[in-house]
Amino acid sequence: MSQLLQDAKALVQQATKALDKASVAEQVAVFSPFCSTDFAWRGSRPFYEHSSVASALDSFWAPLKTAFISFDRREDIFFAGHNDCDGGETVWTCSMGQFVGLFDEPFLDIPPTRRLSHLRYAEFSQVKDGKIVEQALFIDLIGLMLDAGVNPLPPMTGRYFVYPGPKTHDGILMGEHD
């Protein structure tokens, strides 16, 4: 079973590296070979659900990579495991960190900062038979809006701040682990 998790991690790492390096015009051709034909993608509002690689990439990744020049994924946490919710039948990877780049174009009507910006993310990928069959991606739009000087929240006593990755920088678990 551990080889199954190692293979899932290797596949997802290879797929995300290829996607991150691809231009908007290349992204569908580059990412599709890593995904199953019945690929499903779920994103936080306003991206919702997509039932094809092209639809997911056009909805989320193309606008993001157009807005963030010199796009980079700074991964703080990465691991794989069997899903407890289905009795361990499915294998998932989890990646958390920040998308970083020069925020030079509007993104979802959020005005560009024209400086380096960070967009926190959590991405989950289900792998089956050597392909990514499902992904779920959650991003911190409120944090990006606050960075751009747009406050979508009512006045409150709490404080918003960015939670950093592990201080020891040991959250990327590529080897075998419990």
Structural key phrases:
six-stranded mixed beta sheet, 6 strands, 178 residues, 4 helices, alpha+beta
Notes on the protein architecture:
The protein is 26% helix and 34% strand. The protein is α+β, with helices and mostly antiparallel strands. It has a 6-stranded mixed beta sheet. The longest helix is centred in the N-terminal third of the chain and has 20 residues, at 2-21.
Class inferred from helices and paired strands: alpha+beta
Spatial extent as radius of gyration: 17 Å
Mean pLDDT score: 92
How would a textbook summarize the main sheet? 6 strands, mixed
Number of helices: 4
Q: Could you state the order of secondary-structure elements as H and E?
A: HHEEHEEEEH
Uncertain runs? none
Strand content: 25-35%
Number of E strands: 6
- Widest sheet, order of strands: 2-1-6-5-4-3
Query: Helix fraction?
Result: 25-40%
Shape: globular
Tell me the distance between the termini.
12 Å
